[in-house]
Specification:
Strand order of the largest sheet: 3-6-5-4-7-8
Strand content: 15-25%
Distance between the termini: 124 Å
Helix content: 25-40%
Order of helices and strands: HEEEHEHEEEHE
Number of domains: 2
Radius of gyration: 42 Å
Shape: rod-shaped
Largest sheet: 6 strands, antiparallel, barrel
Structural class: alpha+beta
């Protein structure tokens, strides 16, 4: 009887040891699996960071290569480019003409503009493609004079007067010449100046171009 109890107890002890071993093995396997999963998670997070950085770089490169107009409007000037040509950042590809009232823009030498041309002075514009003898000129007045010199020129904006009888089509980009009346003198004074007693110029002329009320950077033609 005692032998049977001892044998049963030994069997239980062996079974308990076996179960304890199996439990430790399973726990070890589970821990190893968790460690593998943690490693995979760390690796995936690293790949996500790298991928996110690559996406941001690509977005930046795409952003740099997009062409955006500063304002809404129509295309008034386009650079001539061939297929496959390269352009540098900052190259001028065209000009957008926003909706608005046309005005004339003239570039004057500083020595003839500074202190002489002022807002409100009468002016006239003769367009290159429309002979003065046939089409006449466009009546205008000085609207604004730049306060600083840029690239050796002073920018003068001219307000165009309404003339229903004019045959000249008014549109953006037409090149021509602008004359601004800076003073009026009598014939006697003109004779004295011509004789060299007084030196002055009654008018100042410069190349001009038709632009809209909100002009973009334009090349003088």
């Amino acid at each position: 009887m005692a032998d049977r109890r001892n044998a049963a107890a030994e069997s239980l002890r062996l079974a308990s040891g076996r179960l304890e071993g199996e439990q430790k093995t399973r726990e070890g396997d589970r821990q190893a699996h968790l460690d593998r999963l943690q490693g995979d998670l760390t690796r995936i997070k690293g790949q996500q960071t790298t991928t996110t950085a690559a996406i941001e770089r690509l977005r930046y490169e795409i952003e740099r290569r997009q062409i955006r107009a500063p304002v809404a409007g129509r295309i008034g000037e386009v650079a001539i480019l061939r297929a496959g040509a390269f352009v540098r950042e900052g190259d001028k590809l065209g000009a957008v003409v926003p909706p608005g009232k046309l005005k004339g823009v003239a570039m004057f030498f500083p020595q003839v503009a500074m202190g002489r041309i002022q807002a409100g002075q009468p002016a006239r514009i003769r367009l290159d493609g429309f002979p003065w003898s046939q089409y006449g000129s466009i009546s205008a007045s000085v609207a604004n004079v730049a306060s600083e010199v840029r690239e050796g020129w002073v920018r003068v904006e001219l307000s165009l007067n309404v003339d229903p009888t004019s045959k000249i089509p008014r549109q953006h980009g037409l090149p021509g010449t602008a004359e601004v009346e800076v003073e009026r003198i009598s014939p006697a004074m003109l004779v004295l100046r011509a004789a060299g007693q007084l030196v002055a110029a009654p008018k100042t002329a410069s190349d001009a171009q038709m632009e809209d009320s909100f002009p973009q950077d334009q090349r003088m033609q």
